[in-house]
């Protein structure tokens, strides 16, 4: 937590925490991107839930300055950096200082269709992003390395980044699902706009029954449905996104599962993927729910595992901090965001979040929205929100339309599973309506 000279809090962040018994030391860290300049004091606080018992030891708490490189990474708008036709945008993630920005120059280097190395100046450049849009036909066939170089006014190189890219002759035949140049999902060649709900994968049958009169086409799952559940969804025209989210060896949520090594992690995932990975109802894999910066490298490894295990479908991750996204870019295919403003912020926050996340991902990733379909007072966090309530029909419509205006290409509502809990039984019909 940071405070100013008067003792008022200026910034802060909660860590994910730890549970259970550890045989050794565990490093916990958090990254704050925007620490106000009036912050003069930093402090650490230890919190435990009521009733928790045990012992814990702490050592070497410290604050360090994080200085990001001028050129952080390079990305493309092509799905998995492969394209065969149309336009492709290359985007470099930058951290350009105010002194260098006015005359900073960015160049993209690639192998052209004539086989020669070609240089193209950036179409646009600001403190965070440099972009260049090309027709895929300008690129040489096959694999190559695209580069970006940033120079200052004296033509001195400030930094560079590379990206493996491939121009194909045609779309890979084994791709069941992919995204076109407009970042719209294609399922077996046909455009598909997910409109669905989050629900327990184990209760897929229950979801079909409870929402039989609601015109959804997707079940966004926590957990993996059984084959029978998948069959039922498929026969009812419902696509499925199985959830294997936040499963990382050594992290809090995976300790209970006994996942202590990377091989433990992969074995656990494989057992759950194999029974359903060839099922026609599956359109994507849900891998991360509101991850923190320390998972960046682990997400990249996890994504690579899924690309290898099931190269035919994309991975999806849901984020709640736009400033984290650039550190996760190589760890997901679909960017999802969940603002949940009703009861704590103006509704306009939905549109703002979509824009913040699009910018954070350099406008090259498919963007989905998770609108709020719950009452914050149903959760611990909402008990201090006097205005919290189940969104009205008008508020649901507003959030959804803001997403459409922002260009999202998928919408899955969070909260409907809570309608059927015993404590919400009296308002179930009203919420469903």
Secondary-structure content class: alpha/beta
Strand content: 15-25%
Major sheet:
5 strands, mixed
User: What is the arithmetic mean of pLDDT?
Assistant: 94
Which regions contain 5 or more consecutive residues with pLDDT less than 50?
none
Radius of gyration: 23 Å
Distance between the termini: 43 Å
Q: Count helical runs.
A: 8
How would the blueprint of this fold be written?
Elements: E1 2-3, E2 9-11, E3 41-42, E4 71-76, E5 82-83, E6 87-94, E7 105-111, E8 117-121, E9 124-125, E10 129-135, E11 142-151, E12 157-167, E13 177-179, E14 185-187, E15 190-191, E16 195-200, H1 204-210, E17 218-222, H2 227-235, E18 239-241, H3 252-255, H4 262-273, E19 285-289, H5 296-309, E20 315-319, E21 334-337, H6 349-360, E22 367-369, H7 393-406, E23 411-413, H8 428-432
Parallel strand pairs: 5-12, 16-17, 16-23, 17-18, 19-20, 20-21, 21-22
Antiparallel strand pairs: 1-2, 1-3, 4-6, 6-10, 7-8, 7-11, 9-10, 11-12, 13-14, 14-15
